[in-house]
Amino acid sequence: MYLPHMSRFNKRIRTIQPGEYHVSCEDEMIGTMLGSCVAVCLHDPVRKVSGMNHFMLPGRIVKADLFQDQSARYGINAINELISMMERLGAERTRIIAKIFGGGNVVPSMMKTNTIPTDNVRLARVMLELEDIPIEEMVVGGNYARKIVMEVKTGRVFMKSITKSDVIRKLYEKETGYLAQGITVR
């Protein structure tokens, strides 16, 4: 996790990478860069607790996935961990609201065959529905990357669309490199 300072808001920003999440009640920002990955942002407006995850693959509800790899690179684990950590910091599930970002088809040559972005978005929607957490905002799909930053105390999310091909190429290389580190796509 990277900790720069965001001068625009005069706050520290915790930057999360694929497979990571962060939950906080501090006066700070949480940010990430998304290509085909998805970030779920949760906020409890009463306790002023917020959290964000960044997952690459939806995961499957099968014994092999649930017991062999508990990491937050899978949406199933990332969303469950995010909710649990929010509750540990005093958030109440009945007050939590969600925002979903990402799931872009950022590589033109893979647009017709790559279902991971759509599967990631679908999983996030289904899991939040099962947990009775309303989705307040959803900016997903498209053929561009996104940089998102969430203000912890307010739950506001600021998004910048990224269409520069060199930035998208680097993001794609980062995502595929992460996949090559032993994640099996089923």
Share in helix: 25-40%
Order of helices and strands: EEEEEEHHEHEEEH
Subunit organisation of the chains: single chain
CATH architecture type: 2-Layer Sandwich
Q: Strand portion, in percent?
A: 25-35%
Instruction: Report the span from N to C terminus.
Output: 28 Å
**Uncertain spans, ≥5 residues at pLDDT below 50?**
182-186
Please count the helical segments: 4
- Structure classification: alpha+beta
Question: Any descriptors?
Answer:
alpha+beta, 186 residues, 5-stranded mixed beta sheet, globular, 60s Ribosomal Protein L30, Chain: A, 27% helix
Molecular structure report:
There is one protein chain. By secondary structure, the protein is of the alpha+beta class. It has one domain: 2-Layer Sandwich (60s Ribosomal Protein L30, Chain: A). The chain is 27% helix and 30% strand. It is built from four helices and ten strands. It has helices at 63-68, 75-88, 116-130, 165-179; strands at residues 5-6, 11-15, 20-24, 29-34, 38-44, 49-54, 97-102, 135-140, 145-151, 157-162. The strands form two sheets. A five-stranded mixed β-sheet has the order 1-2-4-9-10. It has a five-stranded mixed β-sheet with strand order 3-6-5-7-8, covered by helices on one side. The protein is globular and about 40 Å long. The relative contact order is 0.20.
